[in-house]
Amino acid sequence: MTIRSHKWKLGDNSGGIDLTQAEYTAELYVFSDDCKDTGVSVLEYLQGVNIWFGTHYKVGNAEVKEAFVRSISPPQLVNGSADTWLVRITYVNDGTGGAYPGGGDGATGNPLSDPPVVEISTVGRPWPVTKAKYMDGFRAPEFEENKLMEITNSALVPYSPAIETEAYNRIVRVKRNLPSVVIDDTSFPDRWVNEEDVLIFDPFLLHRIPIKKRCLRFLRWQTEPVITPTHRYVKVAFEGEIKADSWDLFLKDRGPTVKTIGKPDGRGSYANDVPEGIACVRSTIDLYGYPLEDDWLDGNGGPLPCGAEPVYGQWGVYDEVRIQDLDFFAGLTQ
Predict the structure, then answer these.
(1) For residues 99 and 85, is the Cβ–Cβ distance under 8 A?
(2) Cβ count near 134 (within 10 Å)
C-alpha cells in the first residue's frame, strides 16, 4: 500500500494549517495493489507507517509536531474505485487549551469526531446439556472413558428434565456519537441474529471479534441525547450477545405419538382402522401394547430405531440481519 495523496481540511476550506485552531482534519487517499485488502488492512498499514492514535502528523515530508491524532475514521473505498481508500484523520492541537488526548464528549473538540468504542465482557447463562464427555461411575459397556455421548442414566435413558449447567457468553458493546437518530426497524432493528459471518473491530484495532453466522443476537439499543452550549448530538450504544454456537433452537424429536400410514407397523400404531396409504397419528406403545408417555422419533414422524442417533429439529426464532449494512456499524465490520 502507499499513500497516494493527502490534504488538510479546516472547516469548509482546504489548504494550509491554522495552528490557532484546536482541531483539524487530514484526508488520506491510500492506494492498494491487492484486491483482497480490506478496511482492517488499511488501518494496519497506517499503524505500520506510524499514523496512529497519539502520534503527531507526519505524512511523507510533511510534519506538524503540534498536531496529534485524535481519531481515525473507518476506511471507505472512494466512489467507483476498487483500490483507493479514503481515511479522514482528526488531529488536535495540544497548544490551544485542550489537554491531549481528550476526555471524551468533545472535551478537546467536536464530539462527533470521537472514535467509536468497542467493549467486551462476559455473562453466565443457564445451559441445557444433552451431550458431554463421560468420565467414570457406570459399569455398562456403552460408557467409555472420555467418550462424547448423550447424557443418560446407566440404562441409556435421558434425564428428564434435561441437565443444566452454566455457559459464559461474550457481550459486545459498540458506542459512537451521532448527530441525530431516527429509531426505526430499518436503521435500528431488534430481535435479530447476524445473517452471515462477520468481523467487528474498532478504528484502532484494539478489538477484533470474529463472529460466526447466527451466533450474535441483538440485546438492546440505548440512546442518550447530549446538549451543550456548543454541541448537540446523541450517544448511541449497541449491545449484543455472542454464543459459541447458533442462537437457533435445537429441539429433541420426541413425543407420545408417531406418524404412520395405512396398516400398523407392529410397534407404534393403533392404525388398524385406517385404510392403507392414509396418513394418521397414533400413540406409541410398548411391547405389551401400553401407550408410552414419551419416545424418540426418527425425524420423519416414526419411531427411532434402537441404537440410532437422536434427532433434533433446528428452528430459527430470530430475524436475520446483515449488520454490515446497518449505518451504525459503518466502518466497523467486514
Answers:
(1) no
(2) 18
